[in-house]
Design a protein that fits this description.
Blueprint (H helix, E strand, L loop, with lengths): L4 E3 L4 H11 L3 E4 L5 H7 L6 E4 L9 E4 L3 E5 L4 H5 L2 H6 L1 H7 L5 H4 L4 H7 L6 H7 L3 E6 L2 E6 L4 E3 L2 E2 L6 E7 L6 E8 L10 E9 L6 E9 L6 E2 L1 H7 L6 H14 L10 H23 L9 E2 L1
Helix pairs in contact: 9-10, 10-11
Length: 300
């Protein structure tokens, strides 16, 4: 068995020093639900694992009605969906964190770790993109900020330099008359990996009958989680109608570039991209109008 050292910094400065010292030979441990499996099968072979859970800022949820939500990279899913501020202001995020794994996984898995794992089928990333989340990345030269849609570069590869780590995610405050929804399709409950996922946010006018803005992102239809900017932009100024929603969903379908694998064919996944986007937009509109929706929802 390969020897791996373990470090547990208590402050951001200590973590920065460790990542600077070990560089590409270090891996961050947030929840460990991905990393520990990868270490076991030899997919990752670091010399040192740096456990960031002991750093208070990385386990904190901060909410301000003007500034928005700051989510520490190591905050576990159960803490997120148990926070009434998140449930009230970011229901699409609650959709996701209640969907990832089962109760034991949710006790450890973090949204920050899910993002850093950079899986094309990750459930949290499309919703973060739809919410305009910004990554706060810490390294020896300070903090840099990167939109989530630019963070994933390829399957399993992210934009972190060897001596950097993700400290937190910032989501701006939701606008009035806004709503969000994440939906995914899985072939059966025993296979907890999305065939396709769709995360959307919408903002309506005060009357609730016209789109002001929208953002749409998809999981499992491209080498990275896919931000379909043109589909959301096309809804701006359009009436809230089946026709306008169908138009945006067709654009999402056209943007999808899936592969054939054991979970679905290219044609099937493109069809699902349209269906899930259409349904997610409809649900987001209902939330923007004040309706309380059940969640999370697995499509079968």
């Amino acid at each position: 068995m390969r020897w791996i050292d373990y470090e547990s910094p208590q402050t951001l400065d200590e973590a920065v020093a460790l990542f600077q010292k070990h560089g590409p030979n270090a891996r961050a441990l947030a929840g460990g639900t991905d990393l520990l499996v990868q270490l076991k099968v030899g997919r990752r072979e670091p010399d040192v694992v740096i456990d960031i859970k002991k750093i208070p800022a990385l386990r904190a949820i901060e909410w301000d009605p003007v500034k928005g939500l700051t989510l520490g990279a190591a905050v576990p899913c159960y803490q997120i969906y148990g926070d009434e501020r998140v449930r009230k202001h970011y229901p699409g995020l609650t959709d996701v964190v209640e969907m990832i794994g089962g109760t034991p996984i949710q006790g450890r898995a973090s949204v920050g770790g899910n993002l850093c794992n950079a899986s094309p089928s990750a459930d949290s990333i499309p919703m973060l993109i739809a919410y305009r989340a910004i990554c706060h990345i810490v390294g020896p030269f300070g903090v840099r900020h990167l939109p989530v849609e630019e963070f994933c570069l390829a399957p399993g590869k992210n934009a972190l330099a060897p001596n950097e780590f993700l400290a937190s995610l910032h989501l701006p405050p939701p606008a009035p008359h806004s709503g969000a929804r994440y939906l995914r399709f899985i072939p059966r409950n025993e296979m907890d990996i999305a065939v396709v996922g769709a995360g959307v946010t919408v903002t309506l006018n005060a009357a609730g009958d016209r789109f002001q803005t929208a953002r749409i992102a998809l999981a499992a239809v491209a080498p990275t989680p896919l931000f379909v900017a043109e589909a959301g932009d096309a809804l701006a100024g359009e009436p809230v109608s089946d026709d306008s929603i169908r138009m945006a969903a067709e654009m999402a379908k056209a943007a999808a570039q899936p592969i054939d694998d054991m979970r679905g064919t290219v044609a099937y996944r493109k069809h699902l991209a349209e269906v899930l986007t259409r349904r997610a937009l409809g649900d987001a509109v209902r939330r923007a109008r004040g309706e309380i929706l059940p969640g999370p929802v697995h499509q079968h």
